[in-house]
Design brief:
Number of helices of chain A: 1
Radius of gyration of chain A: 20 Å
Order of helices and strands of chain B: HHHHHHHHHHHHHHEEHHHHHEHHEEHEEH
Structural class of chain A: mainly beta
Strand order of the largest sheet of chain B: 4-3-5-7-6
Helix content of chain B: 55-70%
Radius of gyration of chain B: 26 Å
Helix content of chain A: 10-25%
Oligomer: heterodimer
Structural class of chain B: alpha/beta
Distance between the termini of chain A: 61 Å
Number of strands of chain A: 12
Largest sheet of chain B: 5 strands, mixed
Chain lengths: 228, 522
């Protein structure tokens, strides 16, 4: 009988804690604030929930939860110069990657050539980086292959490279086996967490998508704070 | 235009057409229809067996005419075939279509035919389906052959023209069931144009033939048509009932034309594809051909200048365009039989416009404008066939296999390469028929590939190191496999995804066979 009582004593606070956890999670941690993103209009309704793969992020159909960054975090990438492995996109111009326009329709994205391609944003100075958000193409549900996000202080990415995200699970890009999962593009974009890495350059790789072998970017936003 | 200038321009057009049709024939993944034809051809190549199927796959000419291509390349089995061996056949007929236009120089004029040849060479639609291992390119070539031979017979009834017309009719009939539309439209157009054309040198010779001689000519033509149809449909006399089966097919295809299922499109579908198509930042248009064709139609109907050949081509094109547009079942390659006529009319219209403008400078400007517009069409042709051949934004890519699917094939191939059984590694495919193709083509080199439409029917799944499943079957497959397999997914075609399951130990060995990890710095 005593054992039963003890069990109840343990279970109820646990249940209470679990049920209150989402409420607690809504509060910003100390010295942090919620990252406010201006999201474009969705171009399609719903996501293809019938895709089943252990290598794909779970499709919830719900908005992404709040993401907290240090107080004073600013958008650093707006109108910053962009380089690419394909300097002459077939559609659009590289400057469109950082022009602040995130709509999914025609005229808002750039199209790079087939195979593995990268774009690189020069932030102009070294910053503590707290969030990178990328919209590849969100007019239709598709998955981009071998998405790798790296940051570095070296413009050629030969030294001091930190990999923020890598879902190249078979190392086909040759940058190492990635442990992150693939994801379906939506109007929310995909948020990558650089965990405060202090760097000047941001590079994003991809290698075509489930739709075709070309690479697209609507917008990339990089958020951070000055290095003290 | 002098004869020398004409042949020089024509040779340039032919060279351009050949370059667009023969270069990098393997750049586009095999469409499921192509793959289906390829596997059927592989069976003919390996066993010599072919039987006409009235329910599907169209006529037999493409299979028999691919044999020389395989023989020349020394390929004797399905596994040894490749895309170039197959696609060179429609490509040659696509180039042959350009060459055949030269036969109309007398009837339409040299300027008109040279312009038509250039437009045909760089037309994205004509090029795209000349690089596509389906019947269309062959069919349009035979249809043009029939059109020309019939027209020649109408103006100058000789037994040779009748036999040629019959032979091309037989070849068209042995290629695709839509021969009924094309042959009837051409015959009706020929009779009407013959009656309407202004009396002249080209319109009087026919009356000299006696009814008895005409009867003999018609019988010779019909015999030629029947003989060729019998040879092909009976599989060179091995299956005599094939010819009767082909007649039964007419009713099957007529029913399909009206009850078109997922292929139903509005009447203006072809017009929209050709005139203006915009998607995902890309714009496609063959308006140059359409606008010039309108000029050609106007010129063909002008009473003062009414002549047999322009009127004949015009009526044929309009009638076939109307019939194909009225049929509910539509696929983009079905526009070719009438679009070929529009290209001829466009050349005729271009010549008429040049002729209309008298001042030398204005005429030069018109020619330059035509060449500039043709350059734009050429760029579109390159984009359609080399840059975006499998892209859903390309209006000619219809249910096209995605480039992502080629990665799936490479994955299976790479994994088999490190498996102890190599090409004998067991692969189970659990998917509906629509999702299975073009896998049988791409996995033709593997000896143990099984196909099932449901997981229940596939037996014990975990005996296979690799399993490919459609999304409908993925749940059942995953439930059977548990966590002993890793899974991936690949786009097959727009809106269709396939999952691949690889036995975990095999996957680990596969990863080890790759370059060591160097960049995952987290």
């Amino acid at each position: 009988m005593r054992k039963v009582v003890n069990k109840h004593l343990l279970v109820w606070p646990l249940l209470l804690g679990v049920s209150l956890a989402p409420l607690v999670a809504q509060e910003a941690p100390q010295n942090k604030e919620e990252l406010k993103l201006q999201l474009p209009k969705p171009m399609f309704i719903g996501t293809p929930r019938n895709i089943k793969s252990a290598n794909l992020e779970a499709i919830t159909g719900k908005p992404r939860g709040p993401f907290y960054v240090p107080v004073g975090t600013k958008l650093l990438s707006l109108n910053r110069p962009v380089r690419s492995s394909d300097m002459q996109p077939v559609i659009g111009e590289l400057s469109m990657v950082t022009d602040g326009e995130k709509e999914g329709g025609d005229g808002y994205f750039i199209e790079l050539g087939p195979g593995s391609q990268w774009i690189q944003i020069d932030l102009g100075a070294t910053y503590a980086l707290h969030a990178i958000v990328a919209w590849h193409y969100h007019s239709q549900a598709r998955v981009y292959r071998d998405v790798i996000v790296q940051v570095s202080d070296d413009k050629d990415f030969l030294k001091g490279v930190t990999t923020v995200f890598n879902n190249d699970h078979d190392n086909s890009a040759g940058l190492g086996v990635g442990r992150d999962k693939e994801y379906i593009e939506t109007s929310e974009g995909r948020l990558f967490n650089p965990n405060g890495a202090k760097d000047r350059y941001v590079r994003l790789y991809s290698r075509g998508s489930t739709a075709n072998d070309l690479n697209h970017y609507v917008e990339v936003e990089v958020y951070g704070t000055p290095v003290k | 235009m002098s004869r020398t200038v004409f042949w020089s321009l024509f040779a340039i057009a032919l060279a351009v057409g050949l370059a667009f049709r023969l270069t990098r024939l393997d750049v586009r993944p095999m469409h499921h229809d192509e793959a289906n034809q390829a596997v059927r051809f592989g069976l003919l190549l390996e066993t010599g067996e072919y039987r006409y199927d009235p329910n599907d796959h169209h006529g037999p000419t493409i299979y028999y005419l691919t044999l020389p291509s395989a023989w020349i390349r020394g390929q004797k089995t399905l596994a040894s075939l490749d895309e170039r061996t197959l696609r060179i056949v429609p490509a040659i007929f696509g180039a042959g279509l350009i060459l055949a236009l030269s036969l109309l120089a007398g009837g339409l004029g040299r300027t008109a035919v040279a312009s038509s040849a250039l437009l045909a060479a760089i037309s994205p639609a004509l090029t795209y389906y000349s690089r596509f291992y389906i019947q269309e390119s062959l069919f349009v070539f035979f249809a043009l052959g029939f059109l020309i031979a019939l027209g020649r017979y109408a103006l100058n009834p000789r037994i040779a023209s009748a036999v040629w017309a019959g032979a091309f009719a037989g070849l068209a009939c042995s290629t695709k069931e839509t021969w009924v539309i094309v042959l009837i439209a051409a015959s009706a157009a020929c009779v009407f144009a013959r009656m309407s054309a202004a009396a002249g040198a080209e319109g009087t010779r026919g009356s000299r033939v006696s009814p008895a001689a005409r009867g003999r000519q018609v019988i010779a033509g019909l015999l030629a048509a029947l003989s060729i149809a019998l040879i092909f449909y009976s599989s060179f006399f091995r299956n005599p009932s094939g010819l009767l089966e082909s007649m039964r097919a007419s009713t099957i295809y007529a029913g399909r034309g009206m009850d078109a299922g997922s292929h139903v499109e509005a009447w203006d579908y072809y017009l929209r594809i050709l005139s203006w198509s915009s998607s995902g930042g890309l714009v496609w248009t063959e308006a140059l051909v359409l606008v010039l064709a309108v000029a050609g139609i106007v010129q063909a109907f002008r009473t003062r200048t009414r002549r047999f050949w322009p009127l004949y081509v015009c009526l044929y094109s309009l009638v076939t365009a109307c019939i194909f547009s009225a049929v509910r079942y539509k696929t983009p390659w079905n526009l070719l039989p009438f679009y070929m006529g529009f290209v001829l009319l466009a050349g005729y219209g271009a010549a008429a416009l040049v002729d209309l403008v008298r001042p030398r400078a204005a005429r030069g400007f018109l020619v330059l404008a035509f060449l500039a517009a043709a350059c734009h069409l050429g760029i579109e042709d390159w984009r359609a066939n080399f840059r975006y051949p499998a892209d859903p934004r390309n209006p000619y890519a219809y249910g096209q296999t995605s480039t992502d699917f080629v990665r799936l094939v490479k994955r299976v191939s790479d994994v088999a390469a490190i498996h102890a059984d190599r090409r004998n590694m067991l692969v189970k495919v659990v998917a509906g028929p629509y999702e299975q193709w073009p896998l049988p083509w791409y996995l033709r080199g593997m000896k143990r590939v099984g196909y099932w439409t449901s997981a229940r029917g596939a037996g014990s799944l975990d005996g296979a190191p690799v399993i490919v499943a459609s999304q409908e079957n993925a749940g059942a497959v995953e439930a059977a496999l548990g966590d002993r397999y890793i899974s991936e997914f690949y786009g097959l075609r727009p809106g269709v995804i396939l999952s691949v399951y690889i036995e975990r130990g095999l996957w680990e060995r596969f990863l080890k066979s790759r370059q060591p990890a160097v960049g995952d710095g987290r």
